[in-house]
From TrEMBL:
<dbReference type="InterPro" id="IPR015422">
    <property type="entry name" value="PyrdxlP-dep_Trfase_small"/>
</dbReference>
<dbReference type="GO" id="GO:0004648">
    <property type="term" value="F:O-phospho-L-serine:2-oxoglutarate aminotransferase activity"/>
</dbReference>
<keyword id="KW-0663">Pyridoxal phosphate</keyword>
<comment type="pathway">
    <text>Amino-acid biosynthesis; L-serine biosynthesis; L-serine from 3-phospho-D-glycerate: step 2/3.</text>
</comment>
<dbReference type="InterPro" id="IPR015424">
    <property type="entry name" value="PyrdxlP-dep_Trfase"/>
</dbReference>
<feature type="domain" description="Aminotransferase class V">
    <location>
        <begin position="9"/>
        <end position="356"/>
    </location>
</feature>
<protein>
    <recommendedName>
        <fullName>phosphoserine transaminase</fullName>
        <ecNumber>2.6.1.52</ecNumber>
    </recommendedName>
</protein>
<keyword id="KW-0032">Aminotransferase</keyword>
<dbReference type="GO" id="GO:0030170">
    <property type="term" value="F:pyridoxal phosphate binding"/>
</dbReference>
<dbReference type="InterPro" id="IPR015421">
    <property type="entry name" value="PyrdxlP-dep_Trfase_major"/>
</dbReference>
<dbReference type="GO" id="GO:0005737">
    <property type="term" value="C:cytoplasm"/>
</dbReference>
<keyword id="KW-0808">Transferase</keyword>
<dbReference type="GO" id="GO:0006564">
    <property type="term" value="P:L-serine biosynthetic process"/>
</dbReference>
<keyword id="KW-0718">Serine biosynthesis</keyword>
<comment type="similarity">
    <text>Belongs to the class-V pyridoxal-phosphate-dependent aminotransferase family. SerC subfamily.</text>
</comment>
<keyword id="KW-0028">Amino-acid biosynthesis</keyword>
<dbReference type="InterPro" id="IPR000192">
    <property type="entry name" value="Aminotrans_V_dom"/>
</dbReference>
Length: 374
């Protein structure tokens, strides 16, 4: 890669962070707001951090139009920590929950929840990857404490085209990879969880949007650091973070910067329009390659943010060559997840349409050079 050519991160997570955000963070890393010390050194009890925390929460609430009867929490850890937290905070009323398992991340979440109660799978394992069974076929338990699903499965590249109707049972959704890519009606959900390292920041921070009536249900074994009611009572500042003081809060700082970037670039409507535009271009390129590039997910369930691709029915030699040549041209983290292989293109908000055009041009060139091989 030329030293002057910028690298493009198509990774599934950590995802690309907007260059404007990185530059702003770089400027304030050594001296936050001309205070003379780094944002990572801020006391979590300081007024400066209170403003970071408050602004991040306020911007998230405005961008997603979060109703007043929902609390926003910033939590330690990523998605897998939240899988446990959901179960320990919500299972208690009946000890049972419904899980819609359409991919690997919802499977991991259900496996974690089994440690704390009885889990009902609302549909059998799909016969082939990428299929989300029709909602009419789901077997929901009316006595479940909650119904859980993952809106976008990053490994298989599948996305729900609907919000499940749970007949009044609280609905919990993992939106780690789809949050801030489309408009949502928050009031349809009891709880929204998301790890921020896809569209909203760096790994190690999670967000929880929870309806107030669902607070106060935590199991006795739930650690304080994962107790949603305690976190709400302490405005997400329950404890001093590990490693070194302020590091966790610098993640909130960066998260807040990304939200400011979203606002300044047209808000959620612009992000949704751009997401559709990018994914449509990529799928059109795949489907128009006469089978050279392949995506096996049914069109109705195709993800707009994570697109798995196989080359010529999984020719691993060609796929390795594709990855090698892509890196030579400055395009990185295109390798598919180890469980499924192949190629994976992640189109998070910070990946611009222009970034994608560079990849599309390369895909067409690679097709031209290799379509007669094998």
């Amino acid at each position: 890669m030329s030293s002057k050519q910028p690298a493009i991160n198509f990774g599934a997570g950590p995802g690309k962070i907007p260059n404007e955000v990185l530059r702003a963070a770089q400027e304030e890393f050594l001296s936050y707001q001309n205070m003379g010390f780094s944002v990572t050194e801020l006391s979590h009890r300081s007024q400066a951090y209170a403003e970071i925390n408050g602004n991040a929460e306020s911007n998230l609430r405005k961008l997603l139009n979060v109703p007043v009867n929902y609390n926003i929490l910033f939590v330690h850890g990523g998605g897998q920590g939240l899988f446990s937290a959901v179960a320990m905070n919500l299972l208690k009323p009946t000890g049972t929950a419904d899980y819609a398992v359409a991919g690997i991340w919802s499977h991991i979440a259900a496996t974690e929840a089994k440690k704390y109660g009885t889990i009902n799978y609302v549909f059998p394992k799909p016969s082939s990857s990428g299929i989300i069974p029709d909602e009419a076929s789901w077997s929901l338990n009316p006595d479940a404490s909650y119904v859980y699903y993952c809106d976008n499965e990053t490994i298989q590249g599948i996305e729900y085209p609907f919000v499940p109707d749970t007949k009044g049972v609280p609905l919990v959704v993992d939106m780690s990879s789809s949050i801030m890519t489309k408009k949502i009606d928050v009031s349809r959900f009891g709880v929204i969880i998301a790890a921020v390292q896809k569209n909203l920041g760096t790994a190690g921070l999670g967000i929880v949007i929870i309806r107030e009536d669902l607070l106060g249900r935590a199991m006795d074994i739930c650690p304080s650091i994962l107790n949603f009611e305690l976190l709400s009572n302490y405005a997400s500042i329950l404890n001093t973070p590990p490693v070194f003081a302020g590091y966790y809060y610098s993640r909130v700082y960066l998260f807040g910067k990304v939200l400011e970037w979203v606002k300044s670039h047209g808000g959620l409507e612009a992000m949704e329009e751009q997401s559709k535009r990018k994914s449509e271009l990529l799928y059109t390129t795949i489907d128009g390659s006469s089978g050279f590039y392949q995506n096996s997910v049914p069109v109705r369930n195709r993800s707009k943010t994570n697109v798995p691709i196989r080359i010529k029915n999984g020719d691993e030699g060609l796929e390795e060559e594709f990855l090698r040549e892509a890196e030579e041209k400055g395009m990185y983290q295109l390798k598919g997840h180890s469980l499924v292989g192949g190629i994976r293109v992640s189109l998070y908000n910070a990946v611009s349409y222009e970034d994608l055009l560079i990849l599309i041009d390369f895909m067409k060139e690679f097709l031209k050079n290799h379509s007669e091989t094998g």
